[in-house]
Amino acid sequence: MSTLQEQFNRDGYVLLRNQLDKDIINAIYTDARKIFATQIKRVTGKTVDIDDRDTFENAMFEFFEKDFDGFVSTGKTVQHSFPLHRLGVDPVIENLLKEVGLSAPIIGARAAMQFNSRFLSKGGSKHWKLDAHQDWRTGQGSLDSAVIWFPMVDAGADIGALQVIPGSHKIGLQASTTSGYQGGITVELKDEDFVQTEFKVGDILIFSAFLIHQSGNNITNNIRWSVQLRYNNLDEPTFIERGYPMAYIYKPETELVTPNFPTVEQLKEVFS
Ligand SMILES: O=C(O)CCC(=O)C(=O)O
């Protein structure tokens, strides 16, 4: 067993320094900001420099305030970017998963990105911070399923990097309010049991889907941009036995998002 796997099995996570190519992370981060910038222009009329962090993020907040639905759908669109998905199947990631014991890794859920800030929330902390939870409840895949989490900006306590309870992956699936993203563990947890993680761009956290973790508290005025990748192990016996369950449900809208759209003229124009 590799030292990495020993650590992973013991603590439920490993935090690896300088693991990912910064250019790859920057490509994901840049694409996300460019996608937002197009919609910021539509909604606010402003052309923003995506590299001017404070100005760009203030424009994000303005977009959020002016067109909530547009912001939410843009936030979803960002999750479908090519660079994000390319990373999800990169050999570097595949090998790391194998090193911590997932002998035949497979994607457990669509790659995800979060942009956490209290200025991007309508429902108080509920909508920008996740309470203590175990990801296995949402994925319900192999018992050794693992999550990769990393920020695309340097992230410590102030900007709310993830907090984890070492060893909590071995105490079983805890009772929780719901199985959705907003669910939280209902049994009493001690604040002092949580360890605050800290990252430089390039560092990544791999953790067991049973590890109890929660969002940190972003007290800064900046957005904490992060990525989450989720995997199962096709070789894990109970996963095979349970018929490879897939608890993530992606489904189409039942109604047209834009009523009476498109016109025949618009289609003719596109295909002219
Ligand atoms: O990034 C966060 O603050 C929370 C992410 C998380 O808990 C998860 O993806 O399971």
UniProtKB/TrEMBL annotation:
<dbReference type="Pfam" id="PF05721">
    <property type="entry name" value="PhyH"/>
</dbReference>
<dbReference type="InterPro" id="IPR008775">
    <property type="entry name" value="Phytyl_CoA_dOase-like"/>
</dbReference>
<protein>
    <recommendedName>
        <fullName>Phytanoyl-CoA dioxygenase</fullName>
    </recommendedName>
</protein>
